[in-house]
Write a structure and sequence with these properties.
This protein is an alpha+beta fold. It has 4 helices and 6 strands. The chain has 2 domains: 2-24 and 105-182, Orthogonal Bundle (Topoisomerase I, Chain A, domain 4); 33-100, Gyrase A, domain 2. Helix content is 57%, strand content 15%. It has a 4-stranded antiparallel sheet with strand order 3-4-6-5, covered by helices on one side. The chain has a two-stranded antiparallel ribbon with strand order 1-2. Helix 1 (2-24) packs antiparallel against helix 3 (106-143), helix 1 runs parallel beside helix 4 and helix 3 (106-143) runs antiparallel to helix 4. The longest helix has 38 residues, at 106-143. 25% of the residues are buried.
């Protein structure tokens, strides 16, 4: 049973890490290279992450610079940025792409906080599904005689405690992102 609980804890931790990674992609008023994580560029017929074909840097609080390792990749990178839903307008000087990050309007801030809440809710659903599967597994183990009824109750209590703990972490991550967006 300890092994199962360790697996559950690992699954919960992975869900929180995935949530952090996804919320990092949500644009705030500041320049953050993570907003380009989902951006794929046509690199000789293969969709490739922009981070693999260019150096992406934050020049200042409102500017991201992208310097492709091959000059002929400037146009495809610009095209991919324009086609994405990032809402950014790239400009280039032949060797470097500049991405000015505009200040967020109140309406856009609300959209992004809603997006962060949705990601948090999806993560909570995944956590609840893991909890349900674990509870079913423990109940079937008790039915098969592998664990006693007392061990089942302790196991179910432990699973619920772990779930409550990770739900609190998820709420903290979402609240942190909302605060960052509203700044």
């Amino acid at each position: 049973m300890e092994e199962l609980l360790a697996d559950l804890k690992s699954g919960y931790e992975q869900a929180v890490v995935a949530l952090r990674r996804e919320t990092a992609k949500i644009r705030t008023g500041r320049a953050n290279p993570n907003i380009l994580d989902g951006l794929r560029v046509d690199y000789y017929g293969t969709p490739t992450p922009v981070m693999q074909i260019a150096a992406v840097k934050v020049a200042d609080a409102r500017m991201i610079t992208i310097q492709p390792w091959e000059k002929n990749m400037i146009a495809p990178i610009e095209k991919a940025i324009m086609a994405s839903d990032l809402g950014l307008n790239p400009s280039n000087d032949g060797t470097l792409i500049r991405l000015p990050v505009p200040a967020l309007t109140g309406e856009r801030r609300k959209e992004f906080t809603k997006q962060a809440k949705d990601l948090g809710e999806k993560t909570k659903i995944a956590i609840r599904n893991q909890r349900r599967d674990m509870n079913d597994m423990l109940k079937s183990m008790q039915k098969d005689g592998d664990i006693t009824e007392d061990e089942l109750k302790k196991g179910l209590t432990k699973v619920q405690e772990m779930t409550d703990e990770v739900t609190k972490k998820i709420d903290e991550v979402v609240a942190e992102k909302e605060k960052e967006i509203m700044e």
